[in-house]
Design goal:
Elements: E1 4-12, E2 22-28, E3 33-37, H1 38-47, E4 55-59, E5 72-76, H2 77-87, E6 93-97, E7 104-108, H3 109-117, H4 127-137, H5 145-158
Antiparallel strand pairs: 1-2, 2-3, 4-5, 6-7
The protein binds zinc ion.
Length: 159
């Protein structure tokens, strides 16, 4: 196993989804280098050992830029995910009529909004209806045998 010999940093990303977090560059004894979270680095220094793969450093007060050792606790990956799920706002639902089969269904609003931002059509009640819309509205390019079978089944259910 390679051992870290030198650290540089901490650095912050000025854009992207990791704003507020700090990172360190790690140099290993075999000449390679990598990146590690600053919080992870500090916890390793504090404990005087390297962290196991399954160990994560949790910011107790949820402020990812608050890198004081008192604000750290070791959690397993599972425990940390459970904590984030509990803190998440309750799911808001979006009710709509599927444009293909006319069924009234509901989906998590965050899913619908995400797809809208990606300029996708829909929402639809299911993958099957999304596919039916695609077959009706998109030019038939590169359709393999699987796609053709799907089309046949969609047309069957419509009749
Ligand atoms: Zn549908």
């Amino acid at each position: 196993m390679k051992t870290p010999v030198r650290y540089r940093g901490p650095y912050v990303y000025s854009s992207g989804r990791c704003i507020g977090r700090k990172f360190m560059t790690v140099y290993y004894d075999d000449g390679s280098k990598g990146t590690t979270l600053y919080s992870r680095y500090l916890m390793q220094t504090h404990l005087g050992r390297r962290l196991e793969r399954h160990e994560t450093v949790d910011h107790v007060n949820e402020d990812k830029s608050d890198d004081r050792v008192e604000n750290f606790q070791l959690l397993t990956i599972g425990e940390n995910i459970a904590k984030s799920t509990q803190l998440r706002r309750p799911t808001r639902w979006y009710e709509f009529e599927c444009p293909i089969c006319k069924a009234v269904v509901r989906k998590p609003l965050r899913q619908v909004e995400h797809n809208r931002k990606q300029c996708k059509t829909g929402p639809y009640c299911s993958r099957k209806c999304a596919r039916a819309w695609q077959i009706k509205n998109c030019p038939p390019t590169r359709r393999g045998p699987v796609a053709q079978r799907q089309e046949a089944s969609v047309l069957e259910t419509e009749q």
